């Protein structure tokens, strides 16, 4: 009877394990296999194993474009996260000021950018804000007597435009997390700090930040992963087929997409996908360790 009960959990869990294997494990293993081949539009059926050549090309050849895309992605992630955390923190502090009227209305309105479908928001910004002729920003520049700008035609202004849009879409979630964390801090700490003569910055540094850090850590880590894997903003603003903006901005995700669906180099694209996967796994290990230590 004991031997039979030992296998009972496996019996009940087997359907779920099989489903996870089909949906998650098999695609990863198959991508790993394709990354070791020369599969492309010229070798669709007669591809062969070429070992680690695709990984070598991505990681060692500067002209492959992967290293520059990786640097762009890291800069993109760091800048977005630093600005998100700092801006969201101070906006959340403002929304929690004692006696603030209509605070709930402000918090509700702040959620609209986050709640809107990303595809709709991105295309609205492309046409309504960044368009050379009809965009709000260029109309504003014209009204001020300044020359119109093509915000998406060059890499640096396109990068800044994508970052502004990403912040507009992502800030509400971070503000909501910050707001929830701030409300969990015991107000008696601040009363004691005021009696000791602590000012605004001292209270935030020694009370607020240490108190909200354990609550916010998972949300910040999750948002970091989402920002690192960001695809739709960069693609729809600058690389959408039929409406290329002129910028050659690439992140690791758009680079993998271009090699798979534009250049049809599935071997290289799979190798890049595996590198990204391993990068995220390593980052997850370190961040989880950091959260546990905190």
Q: How would you characterize the overall build of this protein?
A:
This protein is mostly helical and 294 residues long. It is 72% helix and 0% strand. It contains 14 helices and no strands. It has helices at residues 2-6, 8-34, 53-60, 66-95, 103-110, 112-115, 118-128, 136-143, 155-183, 188-195, 200-228, 232-239, 252-261, 266-293. Helix 4 packs parallel to helix 9 and helix 4 (66-95) packs antiparallel against helix 11 (200-228). The radius of gyration is 24 Å and the shape is globular.
Q: How would you state the average pLDDT, rounded? A: 85
Q: What's the oligomerization state?
A: single chain
As a percent range, the share of strand residues is under 5%
User: Which stretches are low in confidence, meaning pLDDT under 50 for 5 or more residues running?
Assistant: none
CA-based gyration radius? 24 Å
Main sheet characteristics = none
Range of helix content: over 70%
Say how many strands there are: 0
Distance N to C terminus = 45 Å
Number of helices: 14
Shape: globular
